[in-house]
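User: Hey, quick favor. My workstation is busy. Could you predict this chain's structure for me?
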Amino acid sequence: MSTNSNRAKFRLTQAGTAFVLVVIVAVLIAATYAWFTSNAVVNTNSVSVHSDESKLVVELGDASADRWSSEGDVAFSSNSPNPLTLYPVSTFDLEGFVECTRTDDRGRAVHFEKAEDGQHFYHGWVDVRANVTGSGASKAAGTVNVYLGDTLAPEGANTELLKATRVGIKLSRNGQVIQSRYFTLDDSAGSHRSEHPATAPSLPGYSEGMLLGWENGELACANDNAQDYTTYLMRSDENGTRPQNALLAMDLGQTYRMDVYYYIEGTDLDSADYLYNDIGILHVDLFAVLDGQGA
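Assistant: No problem, here it is.
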């Protein structure tokens, strides 16, 4: 059994609620880790794996245009305008987002419409594939498991922003969603949603605390399944202890699409006013580990 590591680091920079994504890269060959940082471009590199004769290569790019790179800058495709102003939206599956367009005379959020893709929330994506090259490539087999390498909490952001924003990560293959997760950044008492006007949609089955979404052409609701990102976090001890569950899992030689979402979860139309001056840098720091044999 061999374990090969590829470290990737995304950095999302937010100035107020105007949002920009950029990606930077560095390679730590000596530590057998490669990592790419994200901020408008993506960068990655080959990394030495189990032996000098084989190496794990992670490529990023645009599969539809057959543009791939294992080193240098690769444009990070985005469905969002630049700059992007974030406004509250709600989703329970990262597929359908909704926004409140009107409140009643009691200030409750009562009227909702579908939020257009990337209009009031950030949505970027990149295609990714992993292969083993070298004399041992034909023997290589296994799964590339991806974990978080560091906190998702933005640097410099105040508590209100941490409670308001969420990060979603989705992995697809051949148009089919394989894994989809969204994370809260601060679950401490006095959450962002509970401190603001109630959500009151005319929707059967809705109860306070549920999330809204857009499903089959209409408003829908579901329980909030946001997760604690620390359960997917690699420990920074000497052995680099891995969590029990992987954030994402990929097969060697297959092409995947990784979607990244950054948004304010909620229905309060006034959120943009008091979040506007909040500044933070969000790091999505990933460890990609090849678990298998023959490499």
